[in-house]
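Figure 3 (text version): structure tokens given as input.
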């Protein structure tokens, strides 16, 4: 998680570029925390599109008196991604999870793969049911 405030308006989640694993970041909850004023707090996600252009998308508009919390149902993002407090002074807390999917080593897969013939030899024959 992270917290966005008037003094810390953005937070960037990134992974090591040399890491060949796939990373998924999922945003679960965005909420106002203690000390928040009754003002609109707009949180946006800043990322890059398929043409590598920066895009910003608002994901939450929170106000203490009417909507202090928003559940985003594990809104999935691909790092690097920046969360920015576009309006308001917060504090706004963001919570979620990060999953790392390790890619299998191709040479390891080849050694463990069984050919169709090997699989057939290892299967027990199917016997007819007795009446």
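Below: residues designed for each position.
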């Amino acid at each position: 998680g992270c917290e966005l405030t008037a003094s810390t308006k953005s937070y960037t989640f990134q992974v090591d570029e040399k890491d060949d694993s796939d990373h998924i970041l999922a945003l679960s909850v965005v909420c106002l925390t203690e000390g928040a004023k009754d003002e609109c707090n707009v949180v946006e996600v800043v990322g890059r599109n398929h043409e590598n252009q920066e895009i910003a998308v608002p994901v939450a508009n929170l106000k203490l008196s009417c909507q202090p919390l928003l559940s985003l149902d594990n809104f999935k993002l691909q790092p690097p991604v920046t969360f920015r407090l576009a309006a308001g002074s917060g504090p706004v807390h963001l919570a979620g999870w990060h999953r790392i999917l390790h890619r299998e080593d191709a040479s390891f897969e080849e050694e463990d793969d069984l050919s169709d013939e090997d699989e057939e030899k290892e299967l027990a024959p199917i016997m007819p049911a007795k009446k």
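Residues 2-102 form a domain with the Jelly Rolls fold (CATH 2.60.120.340).
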